[in-house]
Records
---
Amino acid sequence: MHDWSQFEPILRRPLTIGHRGVVREAPENSLAGFERAFQEGLDGIEFDVRRTADGVPVVLHDATLDRTTTGAGPVAAVRSPEVAALELRGAPAGMHRVPTLAEALARFGPRGHLHVEVKTDRDASGAEAFGHEVGTVLRSATLAVPALGMSFDPAALRGLRAAAPGLDLALLLFDARDLGPTRAREEIVGQAREVDAAFIGLPDTSVAPEIVAYFHRWSFQVVTWVNVDDAAIRRGVQSHVDRMETDDPRRLLQRLSVLPRRRTATTN
């Protein structure tokens, strides 16, 4: 357990989110992994969505089926019934299949926070259309708290916003370690404002107090991933990040256990 007494008394526990579920105990992006995340006491889950050949958002990270399923080839080339019949790797045969976005929302939407990352192939027209499809599904779901729609692709975020005007959005950054110059930070702020994002997403290796403080000054909340080691967790807390996605829920929750919870889980 960390002793935070040497730091400011205003430190608060960020929201805790299972990155692709609990990947150390269940296949990534599986319903079992999502269930485990809530059992561990996390505030919510993060998962990725891809578009099938017939336009159905399914819960998968990679552009191809090979690594995480018993299938092969591009996700976008296979129809949703065929994808749904595939098994997820890393578990006994027949135990886990690929869920659709609608299935994940129906089961876990009433349970807590959902971070939904829209994966694209950087084709602006296709990305915006897929973002719109995902936003349409999210808009009709029953959710305990507003979901967070996320993407590295601004076009996908524009599609999400068009379909679901009330949805919180996060612009994700691949690497923010070179955001020292003010101009670089201003460009990120401009991109986030252009898509009406309320959050900036950073890998934990990019987290620093001055960067998080800069985005907070511009009224953005900050979400980070994957927060599995003590150094990253400490850096995130000291930097006042708002949400932490993790691949190691037990470690994160143990390290944060002495911190008071935030008063609100909604955007500023």
---
Amino acid sequence: MVNQAGKIVRSPRSVLFHANLRHYNNSFLFTSNGIIINTRGSKHGPPVFVIQGQMHHKAGSLLAVPGVKPTFLQLFMFAIDDQERLRAEAFTGRNATLSRAIIEVIEAVNPFSRFLQTNA
């Protein structure tokens, strides 16, 4: 939101989201990038995303393997409450209200998510 002076004002929820952006992004992926993140980036200047080798996506099995927690695309086959619970186990710093809002937006606008929900 921008106030009358033209300054950006963030809500507490927005501040929380931006502080944990990577965790929220990773919580709602359909596939894995199949990369190892280089955390030795530059200490001066903007953050650098470095990939060694070839980038590819790992989709994995469509159905979760019995006894193994579902990940990525597999999570979208569950009801919203179950999705939230499974994501909460992986990312303890998340905000349940914000996570639920993200899930609801994804289900409203992403045809793949809707397809998985209705055909699981």
---
Amino acid sequence: MGRRELNGYPKDSRDELPPYRSTKAAEVVGDFAGAFGSQMKNGRIPMYVVKEEDRDFLFHVHFAQPFAELERLAESGSATIQSPWPQDFVTIYGDQVYQGMVAMTVTRVLPAVTVAGILDTIRNRVLSLVLEMEREAPDDDVAESLAPARVTALPHERLRRTGERCGRSRRHDAEPSADPR
């Protein structure tokens, strides 16, 4: 937890993401153009038109962003989060969806509550860590010094120092377990 949750995970680390940040299936829609000015907006794109080796990348969203960026996404007021396909993939698959039409843009769409769920999981993991430290060192008043509003902005350094006082390892950024509970 720790540093990677605050600062984000490397962009190429999809395999290293904890389960609550990875592989969120998205609805994929596109805007299509055809002969004689025909158009289709938000046409659904089925997974079977894409090669199997490209499906995870094109039909799922992985959240490697820093915590603060995820908060901004959740607070944007939008009902959905949109992530466009790279144009190379739009070119490769764009004419394979609807006969006589070509995709101009393709977007992965997720409900915004997906990000709220990720943030809740991170906050709950931090709270569990603080409560565990409080149980191990009850005289330090760790939990009392944390107002609920400050839990989301809790600096990593404070977690590390508090952990050291509780006799825990200095390393708090180990990969989380598969079960975030």
---
Amino acid sequence: MSPDPISAELRQALRSLRLSPMLDTLPERFALARGQKMAHQDFLELVLADEVSRRESVSATNRSRAARLDPQMTLESWDETAAITYDRELWSELISLRFVEAGNHLLILGPVGVGKTHAATALGHVACRRRHSVVMARTDRLLKRLKASRLDGTYEAEMRRLIAVDVLVLDDFAIHPLDTIETSDIYEVVVERHRRRSIIAVSNREPPEWLATMADPPACPGSRGPPRQRRPRARARRRELPSPPKAKSWGGDALTPTAPRPRDEYRYRAPVPGPCPEHLSCILIRCNRFLCPNPVHVSPGRGRPGRFCSPACRVAEHRRLNGE
């Protein structure tokens, strides 16, 4: 018996509900329901289960593509007959992703050609199927991208993305020598993700050999024992600006000038412009208000910088220059 035709009204209703992909399987489901004399509730449950399965598959595929995971290195393509030995109970425990839920890290170590990258990528695919956000990259390319982001002002956004992702997979970790900036970036990522989000590091070097590849070993986590408690950023990066000089008087009371101040008057200059001690992607310039000691943060490449540290300074300077 030929499958029941799908009416135009049903097609329009499915399209309105964004269920158009169900049209590909509805004829077969109609035939199955008629042959097995399924109840209406069972037929509806079967059709909706097909749609849920399809959406989960599409969602996992999109997350895997966004994470830049190799589509060929999945759990199903793992060769069980390969001439390598590993702990199968430990592998089953890793596939459960309990270490991701606990915020623990995973190190996959071994010589070249034993399937370390395949194992890490397969775990990334499993995490995508369970609705975790994943980012996978070679460590050297990731550090080059972070270094380039400092030039276009996107360093903080890129760092926030690496810190917020559920699973960060670093392939070829500690393979190439790192300079001071790259060592600092690795330290920031590891410290910010410690006990919060998981890192899967793949390397053919043992952990004691990692410090030899870094430019500043004392700044690396684990080189001085357990990590110490970090101070708040506001105290860790603090810079005291000198107090502004006292205002001069033009006659009369020292606090109430009797004459308007000339436009070419002495302007207090804060120790700027210069690099910002709190943000690596911005610089400091002077506030244009008379005697204002506050600097103005400016991000390079983002339009014309503001000349005042606050709207109140802008209004006060306008009134002062116009004698209001």
